[in-house]
Design a protein that fits this description.
- The protein is of the alpha/beta class.
- Helices cover 24% and strands 15% of the residues.
- Strand 14 and strand 15 form a beta hairpin.
- The radius of gyration is 23 Å and the shape is globular.
- The structure holds 1-deoxynojirimycin (NOJ).
- The site of 1-deoxynojirimycin has 9 residues, from loops.
- 1-deoxynojirimycin (NOJ) binds next to loops.
Length: 535
């Protein structure tokens, strides 16, 4: 069968495609809410806090993994894809979260981790136990080593977390793990692996999930022969070029097969790719009409707070994704990156301005738990409390992912701020009393109320999220972005650290700043501020 992948979809965009402009909130279960008081967030905790998400006004929730796992990488090392880890509750709890979220009008997306499993997964345990020659080893990447006695790894590939991507077993064979040694990579050329994941998708679709966030969606398929790369510092190349283990063309056949399954189910079940593709055109390949629905736009996430750079990133994104008929999928924060309040370097004002800019763009947007509270990155966690596996391996990722994973503050004036009881799995700062949901609720100047207002307007205003273009207004001063959206919505963004004077584009609807500006033909747009207007 011939696929015309680069063409726009034949069918017109259906206005009922809920996901095209959905605002989707990422729950990191360990750190959202703790129902049983063990200091670790869990599914009962999520059930108890669904009203927060309903009141916030998001359309859907993405849950990071809660599967049975030894937690070598905070649950991204899955031992059983059909079981819930006791840390997080039971399968009945998961079903209750899905059911009760639906009752609140929230869709539920769960994480699927197909590139690798846990070294405690039944297949891998048996493969190890049975020794060289075991047919189960064919479901992973086992190889003999190089060197006179097989003492050198089979290829020069490095783990994303640092160090070699190969670990040697006592029986002499090596196995591949692009992440931690506790996360062996599956061999996606093996039919049993392909069948197993189709079955896992159906298991969760039958339980009612509305879609999957696909972990390492650019991984899975490896170049034949697992060829050497030839130079070091590979972790730094990820996302900037095609590697023999990332963004291989063969991975797209997997998504075409998954899309067929998703489409069998009613209600538009979706897939969202976590694909660190080297270019936006390569990212767009994951969201062709017969593949996944969305792909996180990490190019935008990595763009500096600079008007020219942001405008170029928006244009390039809309052009590349529009060419395949897919919506843009914006994101500023998640559990792997420094929170945008801290990363963008301009504190809370800039973070709020960046959020209103993102929410004015066409397409879908993902929020990461706690950004609606304006949480900063926690940058002073002592080494002894850190849990991110990359912290303990050198020369890989920066090892600083714990600082965005600190449990949420809900209420009260001291840790655990209503998160649960007792010590939280990562300690919370002493100065978060003013950042709790309770403290911010009802305060019109709070970041929580800003998010609630913005998401409320997104639901009612036809221009927000809709369509796939922005109309830039070119009379804006240097460092200011101004653009029009359908329905007469205008967005003005001052990325500079000085106030800017602009002509009034209409009636102000919402500002990321502290108060709406005085209007006198012109108005002053403060530094690091976004304002939404209605013409
Ligand atoms: C991406 C996930 O978001 C990250 O947290 C994880 O460590 C890696 N994939 C490996 O699964």
């Amino acid at each position: 069968m011939t696929h015309q992948h680069n063409e726009a979809p034949e069918t017109a965009v259906r206005p009922t495609d809920w996901w095209r402009d959905a605002v989707i909130y990422q729950i990191y279960p360990r750190s959202f809410a703790d129902g049983n008081g063990d200091g670790m967030g869990d599914l009962p905790g999520i059930r108890g806090r669904l009203a927060h998400l309903r009141d916030l006004g998001v359309d859907a929730v993405w849950l990071s993994p809660f599967y049975a796992s030894p937690q070598a990488d905070a649950g991204y090392d899955v031992a059983d894809y059909r079981a819930v880890d006791p840390l997080f509750g039971t399968l009945a709890d998961a079903e209750a979260v899905i059911r009760e979220a639906h009752d609140q009008g929230l869709r539920i997306i769960i994480d699927i981790v197909p590139n690798h499993c846990s070294d405690q997964h039944a297949w891998f345990r048996r493969a190890v136990a049975e020794g060289p020659g075991s047919v189960l080893r064919e479901r992973f990447h086992f190889r003999k080593g190089r060197g006179d006695n097989g003492e050198l790894p089979p290829s020069d590939w490095e783990s994303v977390f640092g160090g070699p991507a190969w670990t040697r077993l006592p029986d002499g064979e090596w196995y591949l793990h692009l992440f931690a040694p506790e996360q062996p990579d599956f061999n996606w050329d093996h039919p049993a692996v392909q069948d197993e994941f189709r079955s896992i998708l159906r298991f969760w679709l039958d339980l009612g999930v509305d879609g999957f966030r696909v972990d390492v969606a650019h991984g899975m398929v490896k170049a034949p022969g697992l060829p050497d790369i030839g130079h070091g510092e590979q972790a730094r190349l990820i996302g900037s070029q095609i590697l023999p283990f990332f963004d291989q063309d063969g991975v797209h056949a997997v998504y075409r097969s998954w899309r067929a399954i998703l489409d069998e189910y009613p209600g538009q079940r979706i897939g969202v790719a976590e694909a660190w593709a080297p270019t936006l055109d390569r990212l767009a390949r994951y969201v062709r009409p017969d593949e996944l629905h969305q792909g996180f736009n990490f190019h935008y996430l990595g763009t500096d707070w600079d008007a020219g750079a942001l405008r170029a990133a928006v244009d390039a994104s809309l052009s590349a994704l529009g060419a395949v008929g897919a919506p843009a999928t914006w994101v500023l924060s998640n559990h792997d990156v420094v929170r945008h309040r801290t990363r963008l370097g301009g504190g809370l004002d800039r973070a709020r301005a960046a959020t209103l800019l993102m929410l004015a763009l066409p397409g879908s947007a993902y929020l990461y738990q706690g950004e609606e509270l304006g949480l900063p990155e926690v940058t002073d966690l002592p080494a002894e409390v850190r849990q991110d596996p990359s912290f303990f391996r050198d020369s890989g990722q920066d090892g600083l992912r714990d600082g965005c994973r600190v449990p949420l503050p809900w209420s009260g004036t001291e840790p655990p701020y209503g998160f649960g009881a007792g010590d939280t799995w990562l300690p919370q700062p002493d100065d978060w009393a003013t950042l709790t949901v309770q403290a911010q609720t009802g305060d019109p100047a709070s970041t929580l109320e800003l998010y609630r207002s913005a998401l409320g307007l997104r639901r009612t205003h036809p221009g927000l999220g809709a369509g796939d273009t922005v109309e830039w207004l070119d009379d804006a001063p240097d460092g200011v972005l101004a653009f029009r959206r359908p329905g007469g919505l205008v967005c003005t963004v001052n990325t500079t650290d000085a106030p800017a004077r602009l002509s009034v584009p209409g009636r102000p609807l919402l500002t990321s700043g502290r108060q709406l500006p005085l209007l006198d033909g012109d108005f002053i747009l403060p530094a690091d501020t976004t304002i939404w207007w209605e013409e």
